[in-house]
């Protein structure tokens, strides 16, 4: 298992070669299925925001760094 941490300034500290490019199938079968059924998601890279509270150009700046992303 590999642990992924995010530093206070928001930079990921991940192993060399790590990529986060899930396929549509991985998003649907892993993330969204667990999300809909309120199950715990091991890898918490995708954050939730209320899109109605932000202008489209402000959304990218709303992500806040988290201390531990999880483990793979």
What distinguishing features does this structure have?
single chain; 72 residues; alpha+beta; three-stranded antiparallel sheet; disordered C terminus
Describe this structure in words.
The model is unreliable at 66-72 (pLDDT under 50). The N and C termini lie close together (5 Å). The protein has a three-stranded antiparallel β-sheet, with no helix packed on it. It has one helix spanning 24-36, and strands at residues 3-6, 12-13, 68-71. It is built from one helix and three strands; from the N terminus they run ββαβ. A hairpin with a 5-residue loop joins strand 1 and strand 2. With 72 residues, the chain is α+β, with helices and mostly antiparallel strands.
Explain briefly what this protein structure is.
Pfam families: NAM. The chain has one helix at residues 24-36; strands at 3-6, 12-13, 68-71.
Based on helices, strands and strand pairing, what is the structural class? alpha+beta
Oligomeric category: single chain
Radius of gyration: 14 Å
How many structurally independent domains? Answer: 1
Mean pLDDT across all amino acids: 71
- Span between N and C termini? 5 Å
Strand content: 5-15%
- Write down the overall geometry: extended
Strand order of the largest sheet: 2-1-3
Q: What is the N-to-C succession of helices and strands?
A: EEHE
Low-confidence stretches: 66-72
Quick one: biggest sheet?
A: 3 strands, antiparallel
Number of helices: 1
**What fraction, in percent, of the residue positions are helical?**
10-25%
């Amino acid at each position: 298992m590999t642990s992924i941490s995010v530093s206070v300034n928001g930079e990921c500290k991940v192993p060399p070669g790590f990529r986060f490019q899930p396929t549509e199938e991985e998003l649907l079968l892993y993330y969204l299925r667990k999300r809909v059924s309120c199950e715990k998601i091991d890898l918490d890279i995708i954050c939730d925001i209320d899109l109605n509270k932000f202008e489209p150009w402000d959304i990218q700046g709303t992500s806040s760094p988290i201390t531990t992303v999880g483990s793979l």
